[in-house]
Design a protein that fits this description.
Helix content: 25-40%
Distance between the termini: 40 Å
Strand order of the largest sheet: 5-4-3-7-6
CATH class of the largest domain: Alpha Beta
Mean pLDDT: 88
Number of domains: 2
CATH superfamily of the largest domain: Transcription elongation factor, GreA/GreB, C-terminal domain
CATH architecture of the largest domain: Roll
Shape: elongated
Order of helices and strands: EHHEEEEHEE
Structural class: alpha/beta
Oligomer: single chain
Number of strands: 7
Low-confidence stretches: none
C-alpha cells in the first residue's frame, strides 16, 4: 500500500475542516441518532421511509467524518511565503485577460475548502494551471466548459 499524498491546505482551510469534524462528531451525530430513534418508533422498518432516509444520511455523515480524518492525517500547511512574490501562489490576487470574452477578471487563489465565486481553489483546473506562473504568461486551461486561454496581467499579494 503506497503512502497517501499530503493534502496541501492553508491554516484557514485546516480550521474549517476541524470545525466541520467537530460539528459532525458532536451535534450532527446526536441529531442523526434522534432521527433514527423517532423513525424506529413509527413501526415496521421494512416500509419506513423516514428510517431509511435517516440511516442514509447517517451513512453520509460517517463517510464524511472518515474522509476528514484521513485528510487531517496527511495535511501539509502552505502559506503565501511558500511562493515567490512575482509568481501566482496562495492568497495572490491574479488579474487575467480572458481572450474569448475580451475581458479582465481577478481571482484570489485559495485552498480547496475556501473557494467561492471570486476565490479559486488552487486544486481547481484554473487554480492549478495558474500556480507558479508569472505576469505575461499565457495559460491554457481545460475546464468542463471547454478550453479557456488567459494571459496573466497582474499578481498582487
Amino acid at each position: 500500500m503506497s503512502a497517501m499524498k499530503a493534502k496541501k491546505m492553508t491554516t484557514k482551510g485546516l480550521e474549517l475542516l476541524e470545525k466541520e469534524l467537530e460539528y459532525l462528531k458532536g451535534p450532527k451525530r446526536r441529531e442523526m441518532a434522534e432521527r433514527i430513534e423517532v423513525a424506529r418508533s413509527f413501526g415496521d422498518l421494512s416500509e419506513n421511509s423516514e428510517y431509511e432516509d435517516a440511516k442514509n444520511e447517517q451513512s453520509h455523515v460517517e463517510g464524511r467524518i472518515l474522509e476528514i480524518e484521513s485528510i487531517l492525517r496527511n495535511v501539509e500547511i502552505i502559506t503565501e511565503d511558500d511562493f515567490a512574490a512575482d509568481e501566482v501562489g496562495m492568497y495572490a490576487y491574479v488579474t487575467l485577460y480572458d481572450q474569448e470574452f475580451d475581458e479582465e477578471i481577478t481571482y484570489k487563489i485559495v485552498g480547496p475548502e475556501e473557494s467561492s465565486d471570486t476565490a479559486v481553489s488552487m486544486e481547481s483546473p484554473v487554480g492549478s494551471a495558474l500556480m507558479g506562473k508569472k505576469v505575461g504568461d499565457v495559460v491554457e486551461v481545460e475546464t468542463p466548459g471547454g478550453k479557456v486561454i488567459f494571459k496573466i496581467l497582474k499578481i498582487e499579494r
